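Input.
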Amino acid sequence: MEILRPALINIDGRIYRKNATKEQVYRDEEDEDFSFSGADGAQCADEPCDIVPIEETEKGFRCAIDVPSVLYKYIIGKKGDTKKRLELETRTTIAIPKPGVEGQIVITGQQKSAVTSAVTRVEMLMEGFRRKQPFTHFLSFALNHPKVQERFLKFKEEVLDQCSQDHGVDSSIFQNPAKLHLTIGTLTLLSDLEVTRACEVLQESQAFIRNIAVGKPLLLDVSGIEYMNDDPAMVDVLYAKVQLKDGSDKLQVMADQLVEHFVSAGLMVREWDRVKLHGTVMNTLFRRDLSEEDKSTAKILNTKDREAFDARNILRMFGAYHFGEFELNAVHLSQRYSTDCTGFYTSSGTVTFS
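Output.
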């Protein structure tokens, strides 16, 4: 099926097929001498694309592409092997800025088709390794209204009072009330230029966002809790359910269209057909070693190290818990692992409904 229906990769609005290949495994992908076998690059589509900005010069053809400095090493490869191979196979010259210096990779060659092929291979190579980077930003709806925060803290107090004896339940797995939110989709933005581009795409979304909201804030009701997996006795994430007071699906439509817009712009990878609207209230990734309580931030655990908790009593006692109602009036491009003056995530960009 991988051959009949190969994976598709969106790069700057252009769609490429990714042929099925055996991926080489490396012991340390963070090593500066990282090398790449070239399977993805060597077998990607090399056909010329008029969208690629190829410039004709006195010496041939030239193309400059923006590449975050963190990805330079993947194009250079161990001892420069990847860069040399790309230059040899495409008969081009690839100039890469010094490590840590943000800039453009410049590809030159005698033939336009050769430069186009090199650009395509470099972009495919970058996209493959970009997907292995942790996400840096996310689109969000903030749920941290003062009334909701107050009710959340009451929920936390009552759960700890009545369910703290249940396996895995402790104060460290509760969300920070100031950071309550709905995640719409995640982005991996590796340079200031990419953050700026994401902000521009968010601003482009304002027209359809205001059209869906009819130019007014949306009245949200945050009520009830649910769990993510199939076994309520072994839960990693417990979330609050969110719905509009008027019973409409405007918030769902808005979230889905935002994802569609960012996917089309090549800034987001589609994971689901529809966005699952949920506000996390408990998450085992927040769990910390109690011996570290004197530190200002919690120890974030790797997914494989997570210890699930028994949510059966919480669901039975608080399944219909009411966190409150408030008017939602903005979507944020939030920066991961950040905090602004209100306690919420730092926003790189914001668009309002009204």
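The CA atoms of residues 52 and 116 lie 7 Å apart.
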